[in-house]
Design brief:
- It contains 7 helices and 7 strands; from the N terminus they run βαβαββαβαβααβα.
- Helix 5 packs across helix 6 (120-142).
- It has helices spanning 14-25, 32-36, 46-58, 72-78, 89-103, 120-142, 154-164, and strands at residues 3-8, 29-31, 37-38, 42-43, 62-65, 81-85, 147-151.
- The protein is α/β, with parallel strands linked by helices.
- The protein has a 5-stranded parallel β-sheet with strand order 2-5-1-6-7, with helices on both faces. It has a two-stranded antiparallel ribbon with strand order 3-4.
């Protein structure tokens, strides 16, 4: 596990999982949203984003967390492991709303320091777009040679970080 992709529905917990994975493995973590969003919630031009992601993909070791469908194929070609968060739209919307209330007004490090806020349009897109987004991701994942680990419930991701990643801390048997 040297080049890891963490993808899935918005609000599923990809960022928290990727941070825990990076902490346990020592792999450098790249947030696609940090590259995509500029100050003031302005989107980076697509060509510039593609160049930044291409440069990250060329590195020998990484965890790249985030979706941005336009560049998913290139990241999948280089990834050796993919974690796919395939949660229900209702759960993802609830988690996104809860996160907004909990962090309202605070700068979000994985989104260029832009403040967290309550955005109906975003929640609407999470609820109605999750199925479509996950369907596209599933189709892309079928073409990948990477090991794909699918989480359909939050407890599966929590269990993975506590059990499987915890094994990385253990010394090898003599």
């Amino acid at each position: 596990m040297e080049r890891v992709l963490v993808v899935g529905a918005n609000g599923a917990g990809k960022t928290a999982f990727a941070k825990a994975l990076a902490e346990k493995t020592g792999l450098p973590l790249v947030h696609v949203d940090r590259l995509y969003w500029l100050e003031g919630w302005k989107a980076r031009p697509q060509e510039e984003l593609a160049a930044l992601l291409r440069a990250e993909c060329q590195k020998p070791r990484w965890i790249i967390e985030g979706n941005r469908q336009a560049s998913i194929e290139e990241r999948l070609c280089r990834a050796d492991t993919v974690f796919f968060f395939d949660f229900s739209p209702t759960l993802c919307t609830w988690r996104a709303i809860k996160r907004s209330f909990r962090n309202r007004g605070l700068p979000v490090s994985d989104r260029a320091g832009n403040p967290e806020g309550f955005r109906w349009r975003f929640y609407w897109s999470v609820f109605w777009g999750t199925k479509r987004q996950c369907r596209k991701l599933r189709a892309s994942l079928k073409k990948s040679n990477a090991q794909v680990i699918v989480f359909t419930k939050p407890r599966q991701a929590r269990r993975y970080t506590s059990i499987y990643i915890g094994e990385l801390d253990r010394p090898a048997a003599p």
